[in-house]
Amino acid sequence: MTARSTDETRLALALRATPPSDALSEQILDAAREQFMTFGLRRSTVDDVAKRARVSRVTVYRRIGNKDSLVSACLLREYRRFVVEVDEAVAALPTTEDRLVEGFAAVLRHIREHPLIGGLLRLEPETMLPFLTLESGGAFLAIREYLADRLRDARRAEGRPASDPTPVAELMVRITVSFLLNPVSCFELDDDTQVRKFARRYLVPLLAAG
């Protein structure tokens, strides 16, 4: 098994949701992604997705579920993809601090530019809010644990004393979600340089607490 496939498997397990492994489920999620990107969440229905996927409404319900389930499944699939990409992008950096700084910048940039997640955050922030807060419990916990695992691995690799990095991971996830949901801030985070400066000053010190 390759390092990439191992990471993908690890992330899939961490997200507590088995990615669709059959072509039909992927076809439905592809159709849902295109539907949501084109028309948004408010104007999209299960029937719209079914028509775009060329399947029946019943098939969508049986394979994925209702509209909320479709949205959650689409978001989880995108999370899996971009977290693995970010993980790979920072893997070669020499220190945990460097990986944290670059990872934070990459996550903000990736989500803001993402055609589905970033687009919906710009156009329908109030519709997306539940899927990043109230309805995201499983994904939130999973991403927190995934980040905690990475911090734990880094601490072990650098010979630091073992400790539970979960509180630090949770703070980092909450801070990231907060900036995504409400970018209006006294902090200037308009480009990667500013984001890296913020992360170096305010997030890196959190590592000492974990």
From TrEMBL:
DNA-binding region location: 45-64
Occurrences of domain HTH tetR-type (ranges): 22-82
Keywords: DNA-binding
Transmembrane segments: none
Presence of the UniProt keyword Nucleus in the record: no
InterPro entries: AlkX_C, Homeodomain-like_sf, HTH-type_TetR-like_transc_reg, HTH_TetR
Annotated Pfam families: TetR_C_35 (PF18556), TetR_N (PF00440)
The protein, known as: TetR family transcriptional regulator
Organism: Streptomyces gelaticus
